[in-house]
Amino acid sequence: MRYLVSVIDDKDNPGSTDRQPAISTFNDRLIAEGYWVFAGGLADTTAATVIDNRGEQAVFTDGPFVESKEYLAGVWVWEAPDLDVALKLATEASKVCDRKIEVRPFQ
Amino acid sequence: MSDVEAAITRVHHEEWARVVASLTRRFGDLDIAEEAAAEAFATAVERWPADGVPPNPGAWLTTTANRKAIDRLRRENKRDDKQKEAQMVYDGPPEPLGAIDDERLRLIFTCCHPALAMETRVALTLRMVGGLTVPEIARAFLVQETAMGQRITRAKSKIKAAGIPYRVPATEDLPRRISGVLAVLFVVFNEGYLATGPDTDPVRHELTAEAIRLARLIRALMPGDGEVAGLLALMLLTEARRTARVSATGELVSLEEQDRGSWDAALVAEGHRLVRERLASGIAPGRYQVLAAINAVHTSARDVRDTDWSQIVALYNQLIRLDPSPIVALNRAIAVAELDGPEVALAAVDRLEDALAGYHAYHATRAEFLRRLGQSLNSRAAYDKAIELAGNTAETAYLTRRRDQLVAGSSEAG
């Protein structure tokens, strides 16, 4: 099964900023063990733009997470046999990133 | 109840979980398994009175349920890719299970999966393993039937969509996962034992009985696990006092006031046997085993005055090391009051105010200590607070009587 693994940060209580070496090591392991599909850290929420073209003309606004306390800081996509495996990895990922992690299956 | 009805009830108790578990294994879908099992039992209710109870009712039900499931799949005739994918998760290579290979264990561990919210685990376990109907579960937890139905449906969808596996966890995860299962049973038992809500029965026997039945099942499946034995013993020793615990007028009867002759001797003996078995194992006990041992000490005393309070305080000291929660500290203080007097115990309880100010038992315990210390006014205020917070009808009645027994205007020690 394929899972979207979201790294959630908190503006009031942000995770530490020195995690990159640990995350790189963790990524190497995900690749070696065959779980890794994709990974990427995201720029600050202020850099996001929302486009709504459901009406007569497209409207551009700032990202939806600019005002919110919690926001998406990065994502992985993992391939794992079941949720138990994904949760075990996510438990480690939370320590490695020093942030909360959401695990959500693709349809 | 006719013989056939009695047989159906018994078979339902004995076979429901097995039928659901084996169908889940075969079809890779809890929803199909649940529906087909329910239809098979409905067919039994229709047919058995005329045809007689089959010689092997479990096999009859499994075969019938399998046919119902296949009928449904043919009817739908759209086993989409999603379901095939789910099937692959469920039909993975067999895991080494050793002595505890039983389909029902997979079912229990799946229903009690930590990725499900506790209230969801409780509902799903009662439905899938216990075989209670959705209306029965809704009634037991005082929620609307539709809401309970949705909770169970959402849980089944999550299990399928998120890929929660249908298997017994690996050995290294087993202790943690077993404690998750036991937590579910403890919630069921406690909701039965200390039922909440105005105008509800103070004890809901169907829930305590169901929790014990499920604990016995898990004990049969995992006879070597100390905490499983501990929780079963704890439930038995608590259940043994059930009828003595509520008076004819619906008031809670405290442990010291209970008619010990009315305790269920068979349940007490069974509980004591389990506690002795665990002591003899020489393996350090977990939380449920220590709680069971505390209850074993209480139920060993023929008269409340024979209670070995020093032993109980020693067990609470052990429990606090395993579970340093304020509620354990509160219960320890109650034993300390018997051993060292209410003044020492009150000081210990007062230190818990920040954590327990919203908990009725904190105020009830303080009220009792203050009463013993002759501080009637303070005691009355504490009883008032406890009554305000208590949710169990028998407890409210008991606390009200205790409060009203206080001597009005007695001197205050301050």
Automatic annotation (TrEMBL), chain A:
UniProt domain YCII-related: residue ranges: 1-97
Gene3D superfamilies given in the database record: Dimeric alpha+beta barrel
InterPro entries to which the protein is assigned, alphabetical: Dimeric_a/b-barrel (IPR011008), YCII (IPR005545)
Pfam families, sorted: YCII
Family: Belongs to the YciI family.
Protein name: YCII-related domain-containing protein
TrEMBL record, chain B:
Domain RNA polymerase sigma-70 region, first and last residues per copy: 18-78
Organism: Kribbella kalugense
One Pfam family of this chain: Sigma70_r4_2
InterPro entries for this protein: DUF6596, RNA_pol_sigma70_r2, RNA_pol_sigma70_r4_t2, RNA_pol_sigma_r2, RNA_pol_sigma_r3/r4-like, TPR-like_helical_dom_sf, WH-like_DNA-bd_sf
Domain DUF6596: 177-277
Family the UniProt entry places it in: Belongs to the sigma-70 factor family. ECF subfamily.
Record key words, sorted: Sigma factor, Transcription, Transcription regulation
Residue ranges of domain RNA polymerase sigma factor 70 region 4 type in the record: 108-159
Protein's UniProt name: RNA polymerase ECF family sigma subunit
